[in-house]
Amino acid sequence: MSAPTLLLLDLDGVLRRFPPDAPVEDRFGLPRGTLARVSFALSDPAIAGRATDEEWRAAVRERLASEGLAPERAAEAVAAWTRVGEVVPEALDLVRRARRRCRVALLSNATDRLPRDLAELGLDREVDEVLSSARLGVAKPAPEVFRRALRELRHAPSGTLFCDDNAVNVDAARTLGIDAVHTPDFPALHGALSSRGLLDDPDGDDDGDGTLLLVLHDRGDAEEAARELAGAGWSPCAVHKDVLAGEDDLEDADWVVELTTGPDDRPASAHRGLVEELARRHDGFVTD
Questions:
Q1: Contact (Cβ atoms closer than 8 angstroms) between residue 281 and residue 92
Q2: Of 23, 43, 140, 227, most Cβ neighbours within 10 A?
Q3: pTM recorded for the entire structure
């Protein structure tokens, strides 16, 4: 089977994630699950382009107030809940590699706020096209959203790979003859792209050929990072003490996670950007 020429990718749950709502709900005395329940119940007009993002959030504020939260507190709760989210770095690494072989487009159930979010996250530069339900006028899982998306992209269902963390959306895409895969986590996304040749180096060159050392100041951070990486398929993820002893400027950075092979069986150095992002989260750095 030839590699797809278009990767159609869901955003939230695949390439972007949000922190849990619980801390916001606890802060404002809301029962757990309230924000998800209310926002989802009122979202249809906004994600279909019949209302703006601000109109939707205003409706959420009004509903919270109608359920007993003081209006000013409801406004504060919605403001605290309104977040841009964060990029899933390991998924972005796959997208960058896939983009060397095919076009990559986002297809997201989203409001008119989406372009601002993508620009803030830097994701607008990481894909070739962005298609939102608000602009298309219809949302997943309606099959029509895929028809409109492919029409705008000028691409046929054949040669299209669609990945989404919602199995219902995947089933809908398949009714149009699209090769669609349920990708609720990184291993599933990696498997979908790898099995279809989208992670192969188009030039036959290896963009990394060695071990990386993730250098952290705290043993607990190093062990936590090692567990996270091992769970994602990295190896050997061994934690060493004083591997870099003798370097004066590394006196306090004496816990090192050794990484030889990435989750795709390529050298760890091929994924340096991803490891550097992890290092920044723990105030560490990466070296060869």
A1: no
A2: 140
A3: 0.71
